[in-house]
Design a protein that fits this description.
Strand content: 15-25%
Number of strands: 10
Radius of gyration: 19 Å
Structural class: alpha/beta
Distance between the termini: 45 Å
Helix content: 40-55%
Oligomer: single chain
Largest sheet: 5 strands, parallel
Length: 311
């Protein structure tokens, strides 16, 4: 099976790189600057567990051909439209797309472009970044990828089996999930609360909890997102809620969402796809949207100032 990985940054470089190391037929769709970097230095992955240097195949959006059976889509949500354009030339009649984006709204975009029968569900957990020297750095102990079928057809079964075959040969933690959409909803429940609160308050979990009302506001935010997922038909499972509460109530925790780090660095953010999406769903179902709305106004204001060159 020929696999195309869109991007060779923190997510694509890490999860695609270990597939390549295992012997899978992997090609990275990258821009010319990144292609030159990979040709000169190889794909370098550094994590607490190892350091890997790989010679990898690359292709550009202009020269890609419809010869790939599976595409790992690892872009940011705000780059989704350009990414769809980039991978369209790689798609043939039975190519399957496995998106690893945050949120849920990208599924509608991909379904419209390629058909639901060829778009699986996917998710990942990793704290990784692409350093200026081109090294993919995984800075935490968690590197997990999940995927699963949204339709029971031969295309998605083959893609899922191929990923399981190759990831079984790696050190990556992976799951071929039978409940992938539920898994994705659980992730956005946590992520929208985590990102919304740390961005709104411009602080880490410990700093928020050290205030008089921080814990109560954190819980109010989480209650809203949990209720939204339930109204959508995917109530978070008890063990996941326990995990969310544990992380969000960890006194002294230095954890911040990557969205806050992007915001503080002056970068673009996935505001609409995470917090905005959940605010809209709250209003659709008549659920308390006060925390989501406040966080989204904060993020929109940042984006407006950034667009105007005032940040």
């Amino acid at each position: 099976m020929k696999i195309l990985v869109l991007g060779a940054g923190g997510i694509g470089g890490y999860f695609g790189g270990y597939l390549a190391q295992a012997g899978a037929d992997v090609t990275f769709l990258v821009r010319p600057k990144r292609a030159a970097q990979l040709a000169a230095d190889g794909l370098v992955i550094e994590s607490p567990k190892d350091r890997v240097v790989l010679r990898v195949a690359t292709v550009s959006a202009e020269s890609v051909k419809p010869e790939y059976d599976l595409i790992l889509l690892s872009c940011k949500a705000y780059d989704l439209d350009s990414s769809v354009t980039a991978i369209t030339g790689a798609m043939h009649a039975t190519t399957c797309v496995v998106p690893l984006l945050n949120g849920m709204s990208h599924l509608d975009t991909l379904d419209a472009a390629f058909g639901r029968d060829r778009v699986m569900g996917g998710s990942c957990q990793i704290f990784a970044t692409l350093a200026p020297d081109g090294v993919v750095k995984s800075l935490g102990d968690v590197q997990t990828i999940l995927w699963g079928q949204r339709e029971d057809n031969a295309v998605q079964r083959a893609a899922s089996a191929a990923l399981a075959h190759w990831y079984a040969k790696t050190t990556v933690a992976w799951t071929a999930s039978d409940t992938i959409v539920h898994d994705m909803w659980e992730k956005i429940v946590f992520l929208s609360t985590f990102a919304g609160m740390t961005c709104l308050m411009r602080g880490n979990i410990g700093e928020i909890l050290a205030t008089e009302d921080g814990k109560a506001l954190m819980q109010r935010f989480l209650d809203s997102t949990v209720a939204i997922a339930g109204a959508e038909g995917y109530p978070p499972r008890a063990k996941m809620i326990e995990r969310f509460v544990s992380v969000l109530n960890a006194v002294g925790s230095p954890m911040t969402a990557s969205m806050l780090r992007d915001l503080e660095a002056g970068n673009d953010i996935e505001a609409e796809h995470i917090v905005g999406f959940m605010r809209d769903r709250a209003r659709k179902h008549g659920i308390d949207d006060a925390m989501l709305s406040a966080a989204y106004v904060h993020l929109q204001t940042y984006r407006n100032r950034r667009a105007a060159g005032r940040f």
